[in-house]
Design goal:
Distance between the termini of chain A: 51 Å
Order of helices and strands of chain B: EEHHEHHHHHHEH
Largest sheet of chain B: 2 strands, antiparallel
Largest interface: A-B, 24 and 27 residues
Distance between the termini of chain B: 55 Å
Radius of gyration of chain A: 19 Å
Oligomer: heterodimer
Strand content of chain B: 5-15%
Radius of gyration of chain B: 22 Å
Order of helices and strands of chain A: EHEHEEEHHHHHHHEEHEEEEEHHH
Shape of chain B: elongated
Chain lengths: 329, 272
Amino acid sequence: MPAFELFQPASVADALGVLDRHGADAWVMAGGLDTFDWLKDRIRRPRVVVDLSRVAELRGIKEANGGIEIGAMTTLTEVSTHALVKERYGLLAEAAGLVASPQIRNQGTMGGNVAQDARCWYYRAGWPCYRAGGNICYADTPTSVNREHAIFDADRCVAVNPSDTAPALIALDAQMVINRGGSELVVAAQDFFVGPGVDITRLTMLQPGDLLTAVRIPGTWAGKQFYFEKVRDRQVWDFALVNIASAINASGNSISEARLVVNGVAARPFRLEAVEAFVRGKGRDEQTAEQAGELAVQGALPLRHNGYKVPLMKNLVKRAIRGAGAWNS
Amino acid sequence: MEFVNWALSPWGESILVRISWDLFWASLVGGILFLVAHGGYMLFSPHHKREAGEVDRMEAAMPGLPAAIPRHSFVARMFHWVMAFSMLVLVFTAFLPVVGVKFAWVYWHWMAGILLTGSIIFHIIHATFFLDFWSIWVGPRDIPEAKAEIMRDFGVEIGGPKPGKYPLGNRLYHLAVMVAGLGAIGSGLLMMTRVRTPIFDRNPYLMGDAAYGFTYVLHGLTGVGFVGLIIAHIYFALRPEKFWITKSMIFGTITRRQYLEHHDPERWAATK
């Protein structure tokens, strides 16, 4: 591994001080699961690594303003097993519980899961693609291996966001708390993630020097009807080919409000606002599910090897609308 | 300061990627410094205008001239403003993200590029077949005019030659914009082969890495060049002593006195 100067601050203030001093030379490390891939492959060579594992104030889950606040360094195991999260925000508990493997969930953190980088292997191999500051997307050529790549919103780069918790957080209308230059910046989870059209070198709005400190989930969607499903090549220790998170507020069988988010199909979690508008006021039945599925994939542009994502996404949307009966029909 | 960015290709070759954004800042700061320096000089220097009596004498000698003389036809003015609009969209969509204003710029950028390309093709045809094609070019015959202009700027009272339809500054600017514009358009069209558009079939391997690298660098250089050129253009367009030219690009005409003061009737015969 390339040599770097390691800082292990004990407080957010100390961490921000180090980040402020070293700017773009500093690399923020949460659980280290994304970080050590980059460092051990010698693709990234930061001069300074800021290990947040000793910052106690970034850990834990607490009730706040009718919702909950999850510290960025809270492990995914804690999120997936926490009684309050399971009771009120089962969607997030389920998404966190499906990340990778138990060992990785014990080490991986909430902040790290949402802030992790793209998994496109051309990019991860250190090739000079658009995302790495170059002028080509190696995954979008006639001979590319692009089975896992984007079917929506590709703008030069076709990498996808690999997070499982990100779509759940957007469905729950969460807010991301960022410390930027000593000031607290609170942004909707939906705006936290950015596509390549806006910034081709990042998956989130985090800039050098920024520190994601917490995730706040309002009470608005607490205890509603949730659906999360992750489709992957193997049932453990794998990223999603496509995953879906939905939160539905229904009275009887009628949907009064819904939020549906799909990940693994674009560089940012893909919120299905057209589907949300379509299902509002409709019954939670097969006909609605079928039409919602068709609507969801309109505009999809598959690459050479990922055409399967179109019917996969369509079916996941149908199942999310069906909800509890999804597996039986 | 870096001039270009290099990367290591998958085959281990060092390849050009694009220009360094340091050059954008250099062009921006350079353009601003130029206008501050020029503005300061024009404010405090002893530069000379032509004497008013010369125009009076010419006006008396040419009583048949109309009060308003057409300088730019409606079609020529439309072309200018469409091109200006597309240029501004191109420059802002290219460089706002560099200065930190993040938005999905690529779509707007290539759309403006297509508009610019179309307007330039139109302009070439229009200028070649419907305008006085040679009136905009510079050549050895302009050396006496350049010399007289420079002497006037340094405070020497001098008569000397006048231009035809376009002052020397206009023609030099046109030359610079033409070179930068054709470079930007040619490289931009090649770069579009790596972007999804409804116009081309995407083919990122149309050229080799080195050729694409050169193309990206050329596009970047012309782009940052336009930052300085546009600053200079807007500055001169708004300068009081040049504003009559700007007005003519809006309304199409100049006054009889402006015609006689700034143009040589032998080289540009006024029409009614």
